[in-house]
């Protein structure tokens, strides 16, 4: 292979050595600070993707950097064969904030959802209900790309070409309460859902759907698993997205923002589920890494404060108002979607065109589903940065 040339773009270098599994924009980012990313020419981009809701406090937040540095000098990795103090301290904080009783740490959202599925099924198996394995999820959901999480994901196109999927998963249309009632029964282990289906198009649950889930949980004794990977850690203005909508949860999965930028996932569960788990039922080598947990604790200490969450709500209101104005101005835009700082709008024009024009204005936004533009700013975004993003988007849409 020919060596890299200093004049080659990162994109050209990337294509030489990285498997072609992502449709990447050819941008050469070398550093970030706060809500901005900088390329190697010094161009400044307003980042309203935030690592897909991962950089909850923007880039290189000083509190997080200091927490990482301090832990790196103490202990970088410790096997889960031994107690891990940063992991214990972080678990205590998460359980206090969320009201759950036990935590399991892993490395990613996919792994968290795999763990949640296994724990739910093991719970009923240990209780003597060995054939109670059905998981009911929703079309347009996204729960991950490993076989179990992919089986839960309600997007058939993502499963194409990978052979048979694990059995026991049933999908119903989002907000179709009659279909949900028809599928949930005595063999249902769990209803699994994102409080707000982000990847599927920023779909919000109806009051009737939430009520139906609670009633089915009560009637059949099934569990409810909430996938908080994108909606959790303050993204909707509450620490858990389920709390925003009033969704009852027995198990909740977290990732993305929870590791403060490092790989970390978590499964939080009620005590009755933890009571049925035994050593060896599940495990991980790297899950709950001391450095990631230290950064996660520093982040959650900030994000869980009521004043911080109120600021998320205030910035959300500003961004919502700006999106509504864009929709009024541009006839090819459809409806506003989302809550908190997980917002967007639908478009009759190809989303790829809007994203490209936004990048020309030095604004980074993302897609959701097939026809929705998604805004995921840092949770500590300023009012001025919200205004800047709206001006840039206005220019991008005008160019179309």
From the N-terminal CA to the C-terminal CA, the straight-line distance is 41 Å
Could you give the order of the helices and strands?
HEEEHHHEHEHEHEHEHEEHHHEEHEEEH
**What does the radius of gyration come to?**
21 Å
Helix count?
A: 14
> What is the CATH first-level class name of the largest domain?
Alpha Beta
* CATH third-level topology of the largest domain: Aspartate Aminotransferase, domain 2
Task: Please outline the major beta sheet.
Answer: 7 strands, mixed
What is the 3D shape? Answer: globular
Can you offer a commentary on this structure?
The chain is of the alpha/beta class. The protein has two domains: about 10-60 and about 305-400, Alpha-Beta Complex (Aspartate Aminotransferase, domain 1), CATH 3.90.1150.10; about 75-305, 3-Layer(aba) Sandwich (Aspartate Aminotransferase, domain 2). It has 14 helices and 15 strands. The strands form three sheets. It has a seven-stranded mixed β-sheet with strand order 4-10-9-8-7-5-6, sandwiched between helices. Strands 1-2-3-13 form a four-stranded mixed β-sheet. Helix 4 (about 85-100) packs parallel to helix 11 (about 290-305) and helix 13 packs across helix 14 (about 385-400). It is globular, with a radius of gyration of 21 Å. About 50% of the residues are buried.
